[in-house]
Amino acid sequence: MKKFLQINPADTVAVALQAMPGIPAGHKFALREIAEGEDVIKYGYPIGHATRAIAKGELVDHHNLATNLSGTLDYSDITPDQFSPVEAQSVLQDESEQATFLGYVRADGQVGIRNDIWVIPTVGCVNGICRQIVEQARQDIASSSALRDGIGLLYFPHNYGCSQLGDDHENTRRILRDMALHPNAGGVLVVGLGCENNQPREFEQLLGDYDCRRIRFLVCQDVEGDEVEVGAAIVRDLYSQALSDSRVRVPISNLRVGLKCGGSDGFSGITANPLLGAFTDWLCKEQGGTAILTEVPEMFGAETILMRRAVSTEVLQQTKDLINDFKQYFLSHGQPVGENPSPGNKAGGISTLEEKALGCTQKAGTVPVCGVLDYGQTLEDVALARTMTGTVGKDKEYGRPSGLYLLSAPGNDLVASTALAAAGCQLVLFTTGRGTPFSTFVPTAKISTNSILAQRKPQWIDFDAGSLLEDVPMAEVLERFIGFVARVASGLQLTKAERHGNAGFAIFKNGVTL
Which residues of 8-38 are buried (b: 16+ CB within 10 A; e: fewer)? Predict the structure, then answer.
């Protein structure tokens, strides 16, 4: 194993692959003398400037390195690369070359990778009722017949649905709508109180022409008697229906994965994130699938790389707006746009937001950026808009977007992962160098950047990308990773977070609470 790695020939720092005198593993050191004020180069791009003179061989971290980021930019000098029609669209191979998985095909044409029963509150006031409904339904089902493996009964408490205004109120409604319509749910019970701002009947209208056999409503204040008993009976009925659902073999082009990282370290941009980038290229370019990248603040410093990959001037402008709108969000609260690396990031070898972003965006591979999603917007919303404007045919299958998309959401792990799931991802691929046990409301697979973490926390980590540090070829690791994703999507392997019942979600909040 090499002692250190210079990632790009232009870099003025290298990363220690194993501990060296004065340099912890995953941290960087100067390859030459760096003058005060001079840009420090990693991944071939500036990751900030030296706050004092740095000697050759010296540790480079947040004590002698500072961000170059400040405010918004006009990006007027950025133009998209010229992609051919084949490169700009998903490339569907011959049927014999298509990878497949076993999924649940829903009435609207979407494909789920799980068949759970979800109980979703419209307002935080009924969180306890939702918990009681699920507990009662579990007892009732267990007393009559064993719970079938693969059908979970889950509820998702949250704090919102009332006393919210403007965008916060709409964000809550959109995320809850997206959950109710998500293909990973075999059945959904939406539980309301009755007097909340997020009125159940008005919320129901947001669902459009939904499958009323699969999605039910319960308004507690309208129930005569015990709402828990009524709700548990509905859940039992949804469960009975789900028992008749079967997995069928479908092309992996139906798979939509969310790309996320958290608890990153100095190896994130060397192992796990490049592995997800290779997977994204394979899924989008070779299989016609879809990947979504979010964590907009963790694009700052690497955003021009994504902008140049926009498939059109329209998508380029959307990407510019995505970045500047989020920077303005920071500035409107009096916060600097360059403040992001957490104490854990810094301890792991990441010193500035630019450094974090250049590693983070590698999860998106090299494929073109096909579009930008607003917070709470789904890929189905995009398909509907394209159909209504006549840009695609009315056939659902042909109107469904594919390729790489960017999504507006912050870097916070649970908020961002929730946004990815709400956008339509059936699976979130989450890289980490420090480790984390959480999951959003869809399976959230943890990919470790280093083997030490995988060995220390086997109850958290689903796949170890640390073998890339041992000179195992990327093609070999990618092949194993593709097999892993196919097993998870087919229900043949649960994520560690699923096994431990860690599913949850969080809604982005920005405004006033009444």
Answer: eeebbbbbbbeeeeebebbbbbbbeebeeee
Give the C-alpha separation, 190 to 122, whole Å: 7
Query: Are the beta carbons of 156 and 504 closer than 8 angstroms?
Result: yes
For 316-380, the three-class secondary structure string (H helix, E strand, C coil) is HHHHHHHHHHHHHHHHHCCCCCCCCCCHHHHHHCCCCHHHHHHHHHHHHCCCCEEEEECCCCCHH
C-alpha distances (whole Å) from 231 to each of 36, 133, 177, 227 are 66, 6, 19, 6
pLDDT, tens digit, 9 for 90 and up, residues 206-240:
999 999 999 999 999 999 999 999 999 999 999 99
Residues 430 and 411: their CA atoms lie apart, in Å, by: 12
**Which amino acid would we find at residue 66?**
A
Residue for token pair 């909340």: 196
| CA–CA dist 12, 43 (Å, integer) | 10
Are residues 406 and 294 in contact, defined by beta-carbon separation less than 8 angstroms?
yes
Which pLDDT tens digit goes with each residue over 381-409?
988 777 666 554 444 444 578 899 999 99
E strand or H helix at 116: strand 116-121
Write out the two tokens for 4: 């250190």
Task: Give the span between the Cα atoms of 296 and 264, in whole angstroms.
Answer: 16
Residue 208 near residue 215 (C-beta atoms within 8 A) = no
Radius of gyration of the chain (CA): 23
Angle at 303 between CA 300 and CA 304, to 5 degrees: 135
User: Are the CB atoms for 300 and 329 separated by under 8 Å?
Assistant: no
Residue 90 has pLDDT above 90, yes or no: no
3-state secondary structure of 35: coil
Beta strands 45-50 and 65-66, pairing class? antiparallel
Looking at 31-45, 126-140, 283-297, 385-399, which range is the least confident one? 385-399
